[in-house]
Amino acid sequence: MNSSLSSGTIPSAFKQARITPLLKKPTLNPAQVENYRPVSLLPFLSKTPERAVAKQVTNFLNQNGQLDPKQSGFRSGQIETALLSVTEALRTARAEGLSSVLILLDLSAAFDTVNHKILLRILTSMGITGAVHSWFNSYLTGQSFKVSWQGKLSSNYTLTTGVPQGSVLGPLLFAMYTTSLGHVIRTHGLSYHCYADDTQMYLSFQPDDSTVSARISACLADPLTRITTYS
């Protein structure tokens, strides 16, 4: 592990996942591919350096205020923060005679859409450079998987986007990847709170405010939002 961290590389054997498709419900048709949930199994040894890196990077990000305080997913002690925060804000607005609108966004296959080049640029902007940055580059490069089905293994496939499903670092990297989303939302005057890839956007306003629809549409159509969440 020390050699991996000091050299800025991670063994290729740690980056090979085995995908096992599991039927989502017993009542579903097993002949249809969409009825299966792919479960990714990574080498258990790979999680040892991941935990070390995740702990140190998380401490660094917290000390430097780099993580979005409105992102409650993957963070200790904040499981209920998102729900309580949004509920209290809406109740307060109602008590003040304001109307409110709530928009719920759920990214499809969010972890699979992470662009490696954009993520590495974000890491640099957060102050993660040198050997640590090289380690993350090595971690993301060459990730591969095989599908296990009925006792047989498929050919090996290389992943060019996304963070590893079932990994220790995947959730943290996704949280870092989407930090700029909050800035886009605030630019349009909306409030928000996130839990992993679920984003709750809300806006409280005077009942006679005729600009609400246009403001929401502008936020949802913002090119920056599309780049941040779907690249």
Automatic annotation (TrEMBL):
Residues 3-231 form the Reverse transcriptase domain. Pfam families: RVT_1 (PF00078). Signal peptide: none annotated. PROSITE patterns: RT_POL. InterPro entries: DNA/RNA_pol_sf, RT_dom. It comes from the Eukaryota. This is Reverse transcriptase domain-containing protein.
